[in-house]
Amino acid sequence: xxxxxxxxxxxxxxxLASVLLFLYxxxxxxxxxxxxxxxxxxxxxSILAQGLFNINEPLRTYLYPLIISIISIFTNSDIxxxxxxxxxxxxxxxIYTICLVGKKTYExxxxxxxxxxxxxxxxxxxxxxxxxxxFLTDLMSTCCVILALVHITFGDFYKNKTYLMIFLxxxxxxxxxxxxxxxxxxxxxxxxxxxxxxxxVNIIKSVMFASCxxxxxxxxxxxxxxxxxxxxxxxxxxxxxxxSHLAASNLKYASVVIPNESAQLFYPSPxxxxxxxxxxFELMYTNFPAFLTAYFSHMFGVLDWGxxxxxxxxxxxxxxxxxxxxxxxxxxAAFYGxxxxxxxxxxxxxxxxxxxxISSFILYWGFIGTTIIESRFGYPLYIxxxxxxxxxxxxxxxYWRSESINKSLKLIKTVKYLLVFIIVITLTFYLSFxxxxxxxxxxxxxx
Length: 447
Description:
Layout: H1 2-6, H2 9-29, H3 36-50, H4 63-73, H5 79-109, H6 112-123, H7 126-131, H8 138-154, H9 160-176, H10 183-197, H11 203-212, H12 218-228, H13 239-249, E1 250-255, E2 264-268, H14 280-286, H15 288-301, H16 318-344, H17 348-368, H18 379-384, H19 386-401, H20 407-437
Antiparallel strand pairs: 1-2
Helix pairs in contact: 2-6, 3-4, 4-5, 5-6, 5-8, 6-19, 8-9, 8-10, 8-17, 9-11, 10-17, 14-15, 16-19, 16-20
């Protein structure tokens, strides 16, 4: 049935539109690299010149630059060809992740509209597609985490492959982007929950595969010990401490490349906070209103991604409005879908799906709020909510298609829901523009 669905005009149209968006952003980004992108390029060159076990890098893990260096071998080290190759690889990995989420959700619910909704919001997100064309780790590490969670939630635990995929994906995601390590305890927690609910998890196999897959951390551990005498399998620099201090004095951070403008966009807190002495946790005791302002601004900001493109001509592109409208519509559909899913799915399998994705969302959202957030930090949150966005779309269409409801009553309720939707969207735009105003450089509201 799923193969038949993939040939339907709706699915073909979604894939075609997604590919066209990818080609557009690839054309924009393939010739230029800035900031973090150059950092990963330089490490990849170091790997090729000195070997994997001679990296002197305190800020970044080895795996993403290693992938770049492997691609460079087949492209004669031409940076343009490397970026095109890496972009295609990232885009295909992203497509595979979204399609697997849609496939497994469809196999559970057998609802075509849910499947279409997941593909629509998953494959047409301009922020995610644009990120595939950059030398940045966020989307690839996110896909690894999501694939690990998909195997936990829908996998066959009587097969060794399931255990291997769970730990390979979670460890690879961590070696691509170290902050992904927050998902490893979540994954262990979910395995324990599954053991006592569905009762198909083998603890011995879990420990064995979790231990064997640790070999992925060895190159990073070796280099840290060799270069810095630091026995850590992550990065030598204490990035989280640095991030949490910046989080105390800033509501958000962004990078956009505009002619004659600084690329760094800081959103300072309205409270005067010295980030060199106060982290966000210290604010809880020294200035609780400032803590609440910062923390909830971070939690809102990681859902509100702002600019799509890295390279823009000014602070007011129309794509900012279009992208945000797409994003806000998704969050409304997804959160409504969570409500519908929890209410209608009472089976053990349904409850475990809810626990897996919703608990991962809540725990990561709570954690990331303690750092100075960027929009790309919200990628895991988006894909975690994808299955429920399909349910939200399904429920809305079921209501409209229902013949048991009086047409006039249906129309009145539809108008009411549309008004609520418009009000929510308008308020969200207002909060987003108000947050932008804190930069001192962006004034959508004309203050």
